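Q: Got a minute? One more chain.
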Amino acid sequence: MRLTPDWFPFLSSDFARLGVSADLVAALNARGITTPTPIQAATLPDSLAGRDVLGRGRTGSGKSFAFLLPMVQQLRASGRRQAKKPRALILAPTRELALQLHESLVPLEKAAGLTSTVVFGGVNQNPQARALATGVDVVIACPGRLLDLIGQRLVDLSQVRITVIDEADHMADMGFLPDVRRILATTPSDGQRMLFSATLDAGVNTLVKQFLHSPVVHEADSELSPITEMDHHVLRVDTDSRTAVLADLAAAPGHTIIFTRTKHGAKKLAKQLISLGIPTVDLHGNLSQNARTRNMDAFHSGKVSTLVATDIAARGIHVDDVSLVVHADPPTEHKAYLHRSGRTARAGNAGTVITMELPSQRGEVRTLLRQAKINATSTVADTGAPILTSLAPGQRTFLSPAEAAEKSGVQPKQEQGPRRSKSGGGNSGGRSRSRSGSGGRNGSSSGQGRSGGAGSRSGSPSRQGHEGGSGGRNGSSGGQGRSGGSGSGRATAGAARAGTTSAADFSRNYRRSR
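A: Always. Here it is, folded:
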């Protein structure tokens, strides 16, 4: 790298004093990163010197740049890329994390003149194979797809000089360690290896002993170290009020992530929140990669401020301004609680973590928090409770379900049309079918149109969607088809619009609608 006067201000930065080159410091500065985190300050001198490193730090502690910076700086200093033979490999447990790592790598590789690609399953492998065939310096990969490509001889790891295993404990939790061992066995044994993890369980220790050579061990912001900016609370709710309480919290300003145990639960809760007027996207294993990317882009951009996710996606969500994490379903074990909660209070920001507790879950939640060494405040909560605005302050905003669905990128649920009457005993001379009642379709017609005869369905409405008047379709026609008043068309009154409401108003509306 040739120094120019533009780099001089960066030569005295904290990163520069650790050995990071000026152009990479400038790339970090452009992203607002000016001060190393504890894990970065601890590991960078050794990793930049080419030593094997074992770094332990909690989720959100800045581990990514602790290995990306030395990797880029060393790759630039020697070697050149070859077709199908990358020079560096980063293994990640989920596609979301792999994409986040790539996003962090891009400004650094541009400064250094390097190239990279991301490899993961669930998408067509051909674009990945073409990128590898062209030649890249860095591959960021999930183990399963990478092994597939190795088996097809579409990638050769014999020239890998630097290998990184990120979120190694999550690899172990997901059963990926056998695949990781097979991959590491194909890389040169004398290359540099760095392993970063929030915990060092038995499986991770086995990996360290087998593949790292006299690693320098650094621990900063460990899993059990307290985060003073994170507040933990338990809300004791009943089954009937659970969804309304979640909606009240999600309607507050700021980014909110809500975790469920199952894919079905995530999908169902997202639909419920949208139906209550809260734009929401979900993230779980049943989504295609395009859907995952679209939903995460909407959440990152702020178009949608509520994300419902499963545990498997927790490690791949990196948004610095998440102010609230809600465990709609308490996780099954304490490590999952810590990883979920680590989505907030990132980059020095404060955050709140709330666990929803049903009466049957009291003992389970108590054990969970004890194992996680968390002291949480427990409060009985219902819709409209003051504790909700205390934990998630600000005016609540609810849209109409159709507007919430549009912002969430989903099609609003269409009402089914009325069934045809099997009886011809109506006042109509032909087909006779209609719905009558407030909020439905009301008509009086003669001829072959849709009419309210004796053979039609009528009676009390099952849906009340009006406010100060009928919100359905009202018409009186004397001809064929649908008409409203003296003209043809549909007349709609009292359409719901976006607005703000208090927690008490929301509580009353929710109870009235049930």
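A: The chain has a mean pLDDT of 80.
Q: Perfect, thanks.
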